[in-house]
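re the bet — no i am not wrong, look at it urself. input seq straight from the record:
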Amino acid sequence: MEIHHLRYFLAVARELNFTRAAQELHMAVPPLSQRIKALEAELGQQLFDRSTHHVRLTSAGERLLPWAKQLVADFDALPSRAAPGPATDIARLAIPEVVDAALRRALAAAATDAGIDIHVSQTTSADMPHQLTNGTIDLALSYLDAADQPHLTAATVTTQRMGILTDVDTFPGHSTLTLADLRDHTYIHGPSHWEFPQVRAAIETLQRAGVRDQPDRRFNGITSILVGLRQTRGITLCPIAPDLINVGDPPEFIILPIEDLIVEIKTFLLWRTDNSHSKSVAHRLLQNMTSIENRPGDPA
C-alpha cells in the first residue's frame, strides 16, 4: 500500500461519486476504480458499495476512514516536522541561596512555556547587579530592587510576609505570635548579606521588644541556622512559605506570623535595561509566570 492509495480512497469517500472524485484527482475514472479495487484486494475488505445509482462506504470503509485521514495528515505534515524548529533562547539566571520552591516551580514552568532554556547559578542578591553589568548573567532573581542602579530594570515577582522560624517545640500550641511572646528569646543571625534593610529594621524592633541579640555570632547558611535554632530554641525571621525550607517529616521547624509586626520582603527579576535579549526573555518569563501571590501566609 502506498500513500496515494489512501488519497484515492479519501477522495471517493468525500464525493461518494467516482466521476467527481476522479475530477478532483485530475485522473480518469477507470484508473481510479482500479486503484480502489487494488486497495480493497490488499486489505481483503470491500470499502464501497457500488451501484449504478449510488456509492456508499461499507462498514470496513467506515472503519478505515478516520485512520486514512490521520495517516495522510501525518504524512503531509512530515516536511514541517522535520524542518528545524525555532531556536530556543538561552538565559543565564542567578538566584539567591534560599528561594521559595513555589517560585522555582513557577519560573521553570514559565521558561518551558516561553521556550527558554534557563541556566541557573547561585549568588547573593548584593552581587547580582555587578554580574548583570559585566554580562556574566542575563537575569537575576533578587531580594534587592537595585534602585541605585539606573542601568538595571526591576520587576516585582512576589511579595511575601515574614514570620518567625523556630523549632516546633519553642512555642507549643501557637499558630501566631506577638512581640510579647518573643521576649527573652535569642535571635539567630544568618550571613550579613541576608539582612536587607527591612529585615534589619525588623530586628531592631524585636530588640526593643526584649529579644536577645548576638550580632557577632552568625551562622553561614540555612543548615547551620537550623542547627542553631534546635540547640538554642532561638528564633529568626523568614518568609512565610511552607516549602521554603525542608523541615522534615514530621516537621522539626515551623514559621509563625507575628500579629503586631508586619514585615514584607519582595522578590524582583532584574535585567540590564540596554540588553534587548535580556529584556525580551524577562518579559516572556513574566508573562508566562503562574500567579503565586496571596498564598496562605502571604499578605492579601
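see?? Residues 31 and 268 are 69 Å apart (CA to CA). told u. also The chain has a mean pLDDT of 85. so pay up
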